Amino acid sequence: MSNITNGQLVPAATAAAADGPEWVSEPTAYDAILLAGFGGPEGQDDVIPFLRNVTRGRGIPEERLEEVAHHYRHFGGVSPINQHNRELKVALEEELARREIDLPVLWGNRNWDPYLSDVVRDAADQGYTKLIAIATSAYSSYSSCRQYREDFAMALDDTGLAETVQIDKVRQFFDHPGFVQPFIDGVRDALLAARAANDGLDLGSEVQVLFSTHSIPSSDAAKSGPASRGFDDDGAYAAQHRAVAEVVMAAASAALELDSSTTVPWQLVFQSRSGPPSMPWLEPDINDAIHALKGGPTRAVVIVPLGFVSDHMEVMWDLDNEALESCDEEGFWATRTPTPGIDPVYVTGLVDLVLERRDGVPAVDRPHLTDLGPWYDVCRPGCCENVRLGFKPAVSGLIP
Ligand SMILES: CC1=C(CCC(=O)O)c2cc3nc(cc4[nH]c(cc5[nH]c(cc1n2)c(C)c5CCC(=O)O)c(CCC(=O)O)c4C)C(CCC(=O)O)=C3C
Ligand SMILES: [Fe+2]
């Protein structure tokens, strides 16, 4: 049976109504999990070809590419991200075995070996034709959701397997407890450390928690999420981050038993801006936000990599190197909290996401920590469109 309609791929079982309560897809007998990563270089010779893969047709200025190449070169041309995904694959396999769930985990990347096309071909060779994808990306936007869906469609097209292999994708998991809990633990521990290291620190005024995520072009932000939800100019992308940050602050404050009159100051900031300076991207930049704290009551800064699932290059360079240095310049005590990585609560949560999808668990029974969720199994028409690059076929989305 074909799952291509109007040039757009849709899964065999799609939600009936655009935004109705019945948006959950039907139970599906998946036969394998597709762990889909970003990919990264694994040696100096890989750096330039990798950057070309990522930025093809994107209008990223040459200076920016040279700068980013330098970040990779500094670490021997090796991004830690592939190793993270190898470790995550093993952790998922162990969790599946522990729960006696018979689903193999196949790993493929968008931008580097092992490429998605090769993995999809291998899957079909082994007889796996109903894949449930976990992309290592939690929020809604072109770069963090739709681009994965387009690359799945491209892999099916490249391999000629669009008629044979179905690729569905678990919902965006920004507000799933498995993803959020490691950030809550991290903020709690960081606030304790800040208090221990700074005599008489007033958590209600002298600390600043900076929730950092990848900046994206403002035009992508505006299109993130379904138009029908009526998000403001920065779209679902910013709204989801703000909502999760609120949950993290409330839970960490509760864990520290702060009295109800103490509100720890926090803000959402953006990092790793790329693209030409003339193109608007989400702001403020984390370094500008740190410098802007100068002259105020702030003595300690807690940096939370809320937009990232592991300590990859953007975390190692842009946060651990640049942002911590900005804090140092202003004389602030500073720390960076962990990413989910292979935290058991995160790994368990990812397996739960696969099972709720396999079993068609009703929306009301799906764990979610913000009012925005639980997010959709199947993306709404036009969700996370890229107005710069134009329409491309994508799996796991409803037809416009
Ligand atoms: C939202 C978002 C995430 C988070 C969601 C997710 O995790 O998927 C993310 C993750 C990542 N981004 C990564 C690397 C890069 N991203 C680039 C470029 C871009 N990212 C963008 C957005 C995002 N990116 C955008 C809008 C661009 C401009 C080009 C375009 O319109 O597409 C460039 C080109 C150079 C530059 O411009 O910086 C590189 C090298 C790595 C791997 C790191 C490693 O190797 O450890 C990871 C995990
Ligand atoms: Fe990126």
UniProtKB/TrEMBL annotation:
Annotated metabolic or biological route of this protein: Porphyrin-containing compound metabolism; protoheme biosynthesis
Binding positions for Fe(2+) per the UniProt entry: H214, E314
Keyword terms: Cytoplasm, Heme biosynthesis, Iron, Lyase, Metal-binding, Porphyrin biosynthesis
Record: residues binding Fe-coproporphyrin III: S79, Y148
UniProt superkingdom: Bacteria
Enzyme Commission no: 4.99.1.9
Subcellular location field: Cytoplasm
Main location: cytoplasm
Catalysis performed (reactions): Fe-coproporphyrin III + 2 H(+) = coproporphyrin III + Fe(2+)
Family note: Belongs to the ferrochelatase family.
Function: Involved in coproporphyrin-dependent heme b biosynthesis. Catalyzes the insertion of ferrous iron into coproporphyrin III to form Fe-coproporphyrin III.
HAMAP family in the cross-refs: Ferrochelatase (MF_00323)
Annotated protein name in UniProt: Coproporphyrin III ferrochelatase
Origin species: Frondihabitans sucicola
